[in-house]
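quick one before i forget lol
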Amino acid sequence: MLKLLSETRSRRLLDLFTQAGYHETNLKSHLGAMELPSRQLRNEPRLLDRTAEPTLLNALLRWFWLGRSQSQAAVCAAVPCELLSILLESGLLAESDGMLAPAAMLLPADGFLIASDHPAAIERRESEMVLWPNPTSRFLSRFAIRRHSRATLDLGAGGGILSLGAAKHSDTVVATDLNPRAVTFALFNARLNGVENIEVLSGDCFAPVADRTFDLILSNPPFFITPQNGYLFCDNSMELDGLCRRLVKDAPGHLNEGGYMQMLCEWAQIAGQPWEERIAEWLAGTGCDAWVMKGLTQDPAEYAQQRIRETSQDPSRDNELYHGFMAYYRERGVEAIHDGLIVMRRRTGSNWVRIEEVPKTPKGELGDLVVSTFAANDLLTQIQDDASLLAIKPRMSAYARLEQVCGQVEGGWAPESITLRLVEGFPFHLEVQPLVANFLAGCDGKRTVAEAIQAFAAVANAPLETVQRECLAMIRKLIDRGFIAAEAV
């Protein structure tokens, strides 16, 4: 089991790993790809070959990437005595009969060094294994709102990668997990990375913070929809998507006014009920505005195959597990399983809910996109009547681009289409007419909509009433999709 080092020893350990080149940029080139050892990928021979030379970095990789024991005699020349001493003191290495065995995996991620269990723990069916920073945690991290938070909760923190990221803009972070081993790893990782404003608590759901509220809640809970309960990091004992529904219902009681909760989840689509209705019921009466972004949809058979492949390394059980999964889904009328992100903001008053399927997630940090989308929906609720919309001063987003496609004609080129496109955030696009494009160029935040429409109608030599009706519909659509930001005047 890992042991908490002093702040000085932790800092020294991190420095020694950095000096050895054990960081993301270097490992990508050193290993050829940032792949963990996997029976499915059959990449262990390549990783062993890449780490064959007797160097300090290769010794560290064989311990903390490949999960290989090494003899002390074989590594003594490459590994400094100081580093070996700290690794043994921390419990990252254990010595027995001259062999040094790793007790954890160390993965550089998002500028941190994260201790977790090795993927081999799945093969050993260790129910309390602590997962490494995986695609879902990194996905949520990209959407995380990165503004000042007096208190942030990382619910179901695992090894604490989201807590570490949130600590940069939070006065305090509380990381909770039902798994006692995850609590140990989260504490270890906070100390290892020199982050002092993280408090780690053990318990189920919101129980460890029953009397506390937060400006931001992040949650990547164990949301798998399966009949099994084998691993704490992905499975739960509640029926279907009941855990995610419970978290949505309970979260508002732990949010400050204006506070956000961001949660990855999966939900079932039941025969006779549109998936939007199921999610809408979760959000009803919560006292929160909400934005639901649906991503991937899988049929039960495809989903069962994927989850079995991820959590079972024994092909001899595939038939038994698959039929168990399918019986579970058929008995409950599951037609499909969706995944996505739910963002809630506690706000007094009449709340809005936005449920949609979004385009493929773009690269980069997307916390500002979340905040701006909530602001856009707030604005749309304020300008439902034409008079209110005419009074605002619209401003085109800095990320809006106008693209013109021309086709060949005799003697030159002729415009075929004009497309308004966002180059940051979700890649929304909209075809517009040349006159409309000229109108939008005047949306610079200096004129009201009424003034812009009057000027446009004069240039277009068109009836003001017709121009106003069409322009107002266009502006509402562009605000909704993030092309236009505006403030009421």
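fyi The first strand starts at residue 70 and ends at 71.
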